[in-house]
Specification:
Length: about 325
């Protein structure tokens, strides 16, 4: 290809979910604009509570596993390219100008017989108004058949509480009551129809009074401090905690999961019949891959595909919405 996009792995300093999300975004934009894609592996990862990435060896192993999960090398252009950085022009926010620039660069390279690769650190400015481009990544996965995977209605939630609260990272906080108000009418209908169900809560702290010694870049450290996250004298952070078996226990059949690998959690969430994501790329990624279930996302974080359901606080759970969620599951073919 005369022009390609690539993930700017040399300057990306973030956790596993954020970097995988960016790689997916760059890949999908390349497919959408019918240009090439150059695959670039993640070079380094910031740690997060509960990810068990407490050594450099585990970091390297996770990076390798994430590369296998993405599995994009076969889509990578192998030509020699002149390296450039995608300009961050204001006029790029208008698609017509971005497309004009893109086609001009393509034509110029064809005339000159050259090839350019533009590195993109964060593609979200370009995917923001085109959230359905994420389908291109899902299209790289084997299609799931229409047969129900579970005898029970499988609900998966992602709730962050380690350093996200009403006072810390407020823009990433979704109150427990938001999840409850979504689930309460659903579980009521499930019980009324004698449909077995299980609710799995993915969270980032397994016990109260936990301290976490992060391993991340200076930029991320500054980001934490700017969001009122206090570091202890020993460079640890005192983590928040919520016992969801208590605070959501009245909904029934609650299973709290923490401390498993990123990929194990993603495997569980991408097969959920109902996935309620948090304000985090950690659950956004498996939401993109979930081909059968209903995805509910909080309003005001990342703009996901139009097929998702976006709910404010408090959520408006209409009778029609609850019925649609369950009909999607009961309507799956058992053939």
């Amino acid at each position: 290809m005369s022009i390609c996009f690539a993930f700017d792995n040399e300057h990306s300093q973030d956790g596993a979910g954020a970097q995988v999300f960016r790689i997916i975004g760059v890949f999908c934009l390349a497919r959408h604009y019918k240009i090439g894609f150059v695959n670039r592996d993640i070079l380094t990862l910031d740690s997060n509570p509960g990810d068990n990435m407490d050594s450099h060896q585990k970091e390297l192993e996770l990076i390798a596993d994430l590369g296998k999960f993405l599995n994009l090398d076969s889509y990578s252009c192998k030509l020699h390219h002149e390296e450039k950085v995608l300009p961050d022009h204001l006029f790029f926010r208008l698609q017509i100008f971005f497309l004009m620039w893109l086609r001009f660069r393509q034509l110029l390279n064809l005339v000159k017989g050259t090839h350019e690769v533009y590195t993109v650190q964060n593609p979200y400015k370009l995917t923001l108004k085109k959230p359905n481009v994420y389908k291109y990544f899902r299209d790289t996965r084997p299609l799931q058949n229409n047969k129900k995977l579970h005898d029970k209605f499988d609900v998966q939630l992602h709730i962050r509480r380690a350093y996200v609260s009403n006072s810390r990272f407020q823009n990433r906080f979704s109150p427990t009551e938001w999840y409850r108000e979504i689930l309460s009418p659903i579980t009521t209908l499930l019980k009324a129809n004698h449909i077995p169900y299980e609710i799995t809560v993915h969270t980032d702290v397994s016990h109260p009074n936990a301290d976490w010694k992060p391993s991340f870049s200076t930029a991320t450290s500054d980001y934490f401090k700017n969001n009122d996250v206090k570091f202890n004298e020993d460079s640890t952070i005192s983590l928040g905690y919520e016992d969801f078996s208590e605070t959501l226990g009245d909904l029934g059949n609650i299973n709290v999961v923490t401390g498993i690998s990123v990929l194990e959690a993603w495997e569980m969430m991408q097969h959920a019949d109902l996935l309620i994501i948090g304000k985090s790329t950690f659950s956004f990624v498996p939401g993109l891959l979930n081909q059968r279930g209903t995805i509910i996302s909080p309003v005001g974080f990342l703009e996901g595909p139009r097929t998702w359901t976006f709910l404010n606080e408090p959520p408006k759970m209409t009778t029609m919405l609850v019925k649609t969620i369950l009909d999607k599951w009961t309507g799956s073919s058992n053939k």
